[in-house]
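User: ok so my PI wants both of these folded by tonight, can you help

Assistant: No problem, let's get them done. Here's the first:
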Amino acid sequence: MAYITSASIDKALPDGSTAAVWSGGDSTKVEQAIETAQGEVDGYLLSGGYTVPLRRPPENIKNYTIDIAVYNLAVMSRFREDAADGLLRIKYDKALDFLKGVATGKYRIPLQGVGGDEVSTPSIGYKVGSRDKMKLGGFWDGGL
């Protein structure tokens, strides 16, 4: 299941431009940009312990996927020469920073189950256990 579509990209592009224009009419470039973006997002989510692809991705994940796809499309199509240094790059870097935080456990993604109930979040690798009781003979006699 794709998190975004070419229509999602169209809505995000400035000045009423479209993904078709940015790709020079090559729909395979648009699909490749979307697939590459989702693969990148899923890679970070998987590293964070999430099951991918997300069945119902939250809006922030969709938006970050759009930002990555738009940047990929601009670079692949060489449509925007300023993509590497301009606003597109800033949004791309912001998306990656967030996703890296998800991968390391700094950020968590709220996932919605049926009826809007939050479902389980990934484990972050803590091991819970106990040790033998420490003998305090001679240090504490139970009184004050």
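One down. Here's the second:
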Amino acid sequence: MFLHHKDLAFTVRVDKPNPVFARMLQQAIGGPEGEMRVALQYLFQGWGYRGPDKYRDMILSTATEEIGHIELLATAVTMNLEGAKSEQVDEVVTNPMVAARMGALEPRHFLSGGLAAMPSDANGVPFNAACIDAGGNLIANMRANVAAEAIGRTLACRLLEMTDDPGMKDMLRFLIARDTMHQQQWLAVLEELGPEMATNAPGDFENTDQFADRAYEFVNHHIDKEIDRSARFASGPSLDGKGEFRVVEPTVASAPEPNLQKAPPEVHAGIEATAPAGQSGATGIAGRFTRLAVDMADKLTPDSPAGDDPYEGMTKEELLEEARKADIEGRSEMNKEELTAALRDAEAQHARG
């Protein structure tokens, strides 16, 4: 349940309305660094969290706060658009210099929003939820949240540099302060969980056997430059206390070049990349789909008598004889299941004509 209080989280004051700055503020609403992103990210993380209540309560409380920040910024955008004239839209169309991106009133603020904020970024691109991280794992989510707040706080600092309006500066300082707390609270959860559990996500999977050492190798992919081996990530104990950092060259971590099989004819990969006809009969992709369709049709047809499959119950020798009659190549090397599949595939191909 959500309840709305008409008061804002912070007083929005615009001393000098600026439609261009209104456009800039849109990035903090609907951009991938913006409040819509973190509000939805935290909501879905909280709704799906199955652990202790204290973490779920914290996530959902912060999500609700972020909704208030969207309201705050939308109000600021709308107030910065007050007094904007339709002539400013004309300038975007007629003046090449003014028409440069971020150089004038966002046309959709006038045309679509009626001088109000939009659920979009500074370029007018609608918000895209693809940037939301809700991984169903507390450690992974906390790390994603730290990153989201860090990039959001960076954006707010850049916006602060772009305005000389005292009211807007105060609002942005408030948002920067709240982003500080949000980063700190997510980091505090990781600290509370402890390095053994929280350093790697998910915290319940261990690297074992030959992969244990590979978990702490930094692979130097610079062909003409050495890595500073005194760097924290290049030497010394790993942060989870389970290994030692070391630098290796790519050749140490390499494997033979893959040798891919030719594609079956129905893929139409080109003559040079296609296997001869008949070599892929038992595993052909089109044949598999055809068999699946036939099998489903048989199951869905009420009048189909049970035991209609002519190959069911046949011995391998009988299946080999049927494969000989159907001229299926490679039949002598197939097992019983492969012979049955190849015969059904041949039947399907014959049915297609």
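The CA atoms of residues 176 and 194 lie 28 Å apart. DSSP finds 13 helices and three strands in the chain. Good luck tonight!
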